[in-house]
């Protein structure tokens, strides 16, 4: 099958064309240029370069979050429009798992995270065993210090542990005591700290309903958080109403 894979969950943007699990073409950027201006032109450039037409695609894969609210919305919207227009399946992969896939160790505890501002992160924990991945906890959003405290209790249960994030440089000072106390804990290499779209096809894919699929933001949008602060007693409600 011929796939287009899209990741726009963070500052970086990665797009790949694959035939089954063979990489045909990939473009990964890591700039402050908005994904909304890059994504479609880069897809067109890739397809023209390898002489593929949109009609040649047989599936679309997209990272579903968590991550940047705007970035996720752009990537998922493009993936849904392509899947719907072309009448092809839409698959998703958790963004943190797509990042964790860069770890090369055969067996390890992998702890991926994204900065979520104000010393909070989106974080997860995965056990890698060969090509198999097991989620050890739900994706969470919270203070990085709380994540570290929870993680440290389990570090000695594994022979190899990897921390991986595009934002590792901002958290190395906080991680230093853990790395000092646990010599089997490692930081991912700099070249492995971005999501690469071609990795997603190697991971468990979830077939999505194109009409109802939404990104996994793992937290409320800032506008909704502000609305709830001003409207106490409505925690179980949403300020957004769906119009069919």
TrEMBL record:
GO cellular component: cytosol
Keywords, sorted A to Z: Transferase
Gene Ontology terms, MF aspect: transferase activity
Chain ranges of the Gcp-like domain: 26-137
Taxonomy, superkingdom: Bacteria
Keyword Transferase: yes
Gene Ontology terms: biological process: tRNA threonylcarbamoyladenosine modification
Organism listed in the record: Aerococcus sanguinicola
Keyword hit for Oxidoreductase: no
Protein name: tRNA (Adenosine(37)-N6)-threonylcarbamoyltransferase complex dimerization subunit type 1 TsaB
PANTHER family named among the record's database cross-references: TRNA N6-ADENOSINE THREONYLCARBAMOYLTRANSFERASE (PTHR11735), TRNA THREONYLCARBAMOYLADENOSINE BIOSYNTHESIS PROTEIN TSAB (PTHR11735:SF11)
InterPro entries linked to this entry: ATPase_NBD, Gcp-like_dom, T6A_TsaB
Coiled coil residues, start to end: none
